[in-house]
Fold this protein.
Amino acid sequence: MEFINHIPRTKSEKLFKRAKKLFPGGVNSPVRAFKSVSGAPLFIKKGNGSRIWDEDGNVFIDFCGSWGPLILGHNNEEIQKAVIKAVRNGTSFGTPTKYGVEIGELIASNHRYIEKMRFVSSGTEAVMSAIRLARGFTGKDKIIKFEGCYHGHVDSLMVKAGSGLVTFGTSSSAGVTRSVAGDTIVVSLNDLHGLTTLLESHHQEIACLIIEPVPANNGLLWQDQNFLAWLRKLCDQYGVLLIFDEVISGFRVGFEGAAGYYSVAPDLITFGKIIGGGMPVGAYGGRADIMSMVAPDGPVYQAGTLSGNPVTLAAGIAALKQLLVPGFYESLNEKTAYLVSALNRIFLAKNVDMEAIHLGSIFWLKFSRGRIFTADQISSTSSQKFKIIHHELLQRGIYLGPSSYEVGFVSNSHTRQDLDVFIHAIDEIVNDFQSHFQ
């Protein structure tokens, strides 16, 4: 169908034209190119609270939040002050600073599953380091991942499942060698029987099992607590380390993330930008005996010039202190439940094949009803239907991540009025395009 723009994109379109001469696809991360939705990507100029402004002066209520880490909204005052104060003393030293000790103590004293940790510069780097550590600790080479879970662009995890129960080494990206991909085994989410069979026959080779405990990169494929508890039991039984990739869910569904939400203890956890108040950062941590294998204490090497950057960690301290205020997560979850409930009333009243789901303050619009556990259960028509939703929301001043597979996020800065604007917009769109969603 043809999409009509009622908002100006002239400046964004001109910038995108220039950018395509400089960057692959005109962007520095693929989904930003708006390939799955309509028009040129919006070039954002500033953000404040729940809103962002693009270069053309359009204002949007933002439910993407830099892909999740802006749990406090844009340009949070306390984070801004902490960053400015730190920058006045310099931006990088390549040395330890007091900020590292302070944020480490803050996390360790409020997260029961983190005894020791190491800061890095991204979620991908955190996952890469955790995998290396698991191999070093166990002395084994192979790893297990689940189809539908994303763990950054680590070579060994850019692997997809095939048609059978277990697939060895099917790369999902050019440039990943067979030898690297061959050390990764992919299994289906929510398949305990298949996983058990695999571990029975291959546990002597398997160093770790890595999972997004809240799979949120391929839709919101949230699993039951029982499934995660069984993963813990199986890993203990077969001498395999359990890694939770909490780059999205960490500090988002609660201060202890999904590990705390489900009361399942992983051996290692990886974190992303939320731990630095939205600044570029990652971290991995967990059991002290495992983390003590990391250099200089142990033989597993990992280093980074910008690891523990003082500006980032100052921002992280300011952010995490606000998350620890009593009632913070309860209020955020109530907002999200209000939004999702209202959307579902609309979908039922209009008799469309849509549903909103959420876990904590993470939500997802899907184009089918009923529980979805695995990526292959997602409707094949979702992308085209979402394209309508995304375009029409932009016309009404609401920004979602530009892909049907991306989740949305409610922040502390979203007001009830912001949520009502979203709800009213969805009501209008479903009414105007009802036949497309049935």
